[in-house]
Every structure is written in C-alpha cells, then in structure tokens.
Amino acid sequence: MSRPTRRSAQLMARARAVMPGGVSSPVRSFRAVGGEPPVIANGAGSRITDMDGNEYIDYVMSYGPLLFGHCPPFITEAIKATASRGVTFGAPSEPEVLLAELIVSAIPSVEQVRFVNSGGEAAAAAIRLCRAVSGRSKIVKCAGCYHGSLDSLLVSAGSGAATLGVPDSPGVPIRVANDTAVIEFNDHAALEEIFRVHGPEIAAFILEPVAGNMGLVPPRPDYLRAARELTRRHGALLVFDEVMTGFRLAAGGAQQIHDVQPDLTLLGKIIGGGLPVGALGGPRDLMCRLAPAGPVYQAGTLSGNPLTMRAGAAAVGEILRRGHELYETLDRLGGLLEQGLTEVFVRTGVSARVQRAGSMLTVFFTESEVANFSDARRCDTQGFTRFFHAMLEQGIYLPPSQFECWFVSAAHTEADVEQTVAAAQAALTAARG
Ligand code: KE4
User: Looking at the structure, do residues 287 and 418 belong to the same domain, yes or no?
Assistant: First the structure.
C-alpha cells in the first residue's frame, strides 16, 4: 500500500469505539471489499481528499445526491444564505413550497409532494398510504431493489416463486415479512404469477424502475408497462422508487424515459442538494389521504426544513434551467467512461462488462448480461474486490461493492474519465502479471 493511511486508520479506530462498525451506514465500512476505508476530509467538484491528503476522483458522489459534484457554488451559496436566517422552524416556510412547485412542474405523475428526511421514510409513507387506500396488506418488491431500511421491505424471496417473504435482517418479524412477496426484477412470468396467486391481497408493487442497488440493471422492454397494466388490472398501486433515478436520468426521472406513469413516486438524494431528504409524490386524489388533509398519519420534525429545501431548490432549479444540455453532458461523459472501460476489458482479456443508464453505471465482473439480482450475485466479486483496491491505490474512489452504481456528475471532466480509464488499464494489466 503506497498511499499514507495513518490518520484515517487512527480515526477509524476511534470511530469503531463509539459507532457500530465505525460508520453511520454499513456500505461505507468496506465490509464487502475488505480493508480500511479512507476517512474523507473534503470534496471539491469531482474530487475528494482524505485525512492523509490522498486525492481521489470520486464516483461514489455520496451514492447519488451530488449531480453537480462536491460544493457547487450555487448550492453552497444557497446553504450559507439560508443558514444565517434560520435552518428549521417546525412551521410552514417558503423554500418547501418552492421545491414542491419545482418537483410538480418536472414530473407529470406528481401533483403533490410530501417531504421527509430519507428515501426510507418516503418508502414507509408510501407503503402505509397504499395499504390505507387499497384496504389490503400485501406488498410486492423485487429481489435486489433497495428502498431503505424499513421492516416491510427488508425481506428476501421465499422458497417458491409465489411464496411470501422471509426476513432479510434479524429484528424483522416473520409476520411482517410474510406480508411482502419478493420476485425477480425483469421477470414477467413471476409478476403474472404473484398477481395470479395473491392479486386481491396486493396493496402495491414497489420497484426501482431502473435498478441501481444490485448494480445498474435497466428494465427489459415492456417490463414497466406490464407492471403498470397488471397493478391496474388487480386494483393494486404501482410505486416507482426514483430516490436514485429521480432527476438523475432525466428531469422527469426514469418514468419520463420509459414513458410509464406510476401511482406514487419516491424521491430523495438529488432533490436535497446534498442534504438529508426524501419525498413522496403522486396525484392529488392519493396524496390528499395523508394527514392532515386525510387520515393516513405521517410526520417528521425536520421534514421540509428551509436549509434542505433551499439546497434542493437550487439543485432542481439548475437542473430545469439547463434541461437537455445537462443530461446530454452527463450521458456523454458516462458514455466515454463506458467505452473506455470496455476497451480496457477487451485489451486485458478480463471478464467484465459495463451496464449504464446515463450517468449511472456499474462494472460487473462477468461477461453475461445482468438482468436481475440472481445474475448479479453470480459475478466474480473477488475480481471486483481486487479491481476496487487497485483503483483506490491509483486515486479512483469507487463504491465498495459489486452491487452499487458509479455516479458521474456534471463536475467530472473528460480528463477525469481519461485518468480513470488509464488507472483501470494499469490495475488490470498489473493483476494479469
Ligand atoms: P435513504 O433512506 O438511504 O435516504 O434512501 C434509501 C434508498 C431508497 N431507494 C433507493 C433506490 C436507494 O438507492 C436508497 C439508498 N441508496 C443507498 C445506495 N445503494 C444509500 C447508501 C447507504 O445505504 O449508505
């Protein structure tokens, strides 16, 4: 190991003394790839620097919120200006109205928005609303799609295709897991089967329309349309979790790109401009069931706080101001990275492939298409681990898991992409020996 790591190691030792695993969220611990995570001191644009002064090109980007990179001046200024006027009141404030109006203007299926403080909170609110509106209790989700750490969605597939879920974590009661069925993403037959067996009991089908939490797995043609048709036919609600894809793939999210409108949309990450946020959006006749307009209770002390709302409004406002040019830029950079990495895998004879949607991509260590979580789990995770550490040593900071996405921001440059591709070439050439 050539880069200095002393100060990060010292801090991680202190962190582990006072925080479980030394982190505030498990993926950051490097548990999946081994080794010690660098403790990050600051970020600017496409780069971050750790406590020992090592600089990295950052493709984690906090797992998606930083569409404009670290500390874009127009967001930083919005935060500074708001911080001096009051960061939270526990009362209505103008910034939340501004951000809600921007979101409603961007996503046709969203007429009203309820802000919360995380994607998981948005998922919990959506599940409760779907159960209240439908009078049913069962939820269908896809293996490998992640919606936050809430009991009813921390569930794995049961033994059979149409059997009900089993807990994905200790502490999730079996009776809660049994109210959730888990099917393979992109599997039309499984979707038909679950509705054939449980249709009248199903309150909602929730999925990432473009999956990012098993690595990047796009929907097969017509899969989303089939989900829309089946849920409508059986009186169940369709929930698109766009926490990651919302404003990432397009201003109108994956639902705009694939032209399928869900009943409810989850948002997060980008709409907070880097500050903690989540949101639930949908048509007025559903959203009006939420307290205080309706009986379905949902609340949060810091929901819609002016600081997050101003940062989010700055980000979403810039997205809408730049429009197609922004997404063309992000797609071009993502495409250059995909092409460069693919050429490296061919040159070095490494069995790896890039799957990408705009500025989200994953390098899967397999030659086969990854269409669902079972495919993703067949990848060579040891090969990914070696690649991950070799890239880290060369100053490229990747998500520490085969099952995460790389994020390209508007702050990344062609020079960053060239440096990343060169690092991959060096990493895989060295690995070949
Ligand atoms: P949060 O509760 O972490 O704000 O959002 C949960 C969530 C919901 N839906 C989707 C599609 C998501 O990607 C997420 C969170 N994404 C992970 C990254 N795979 C966050 C990283 C982490 O857990 O530390």
Answer: no
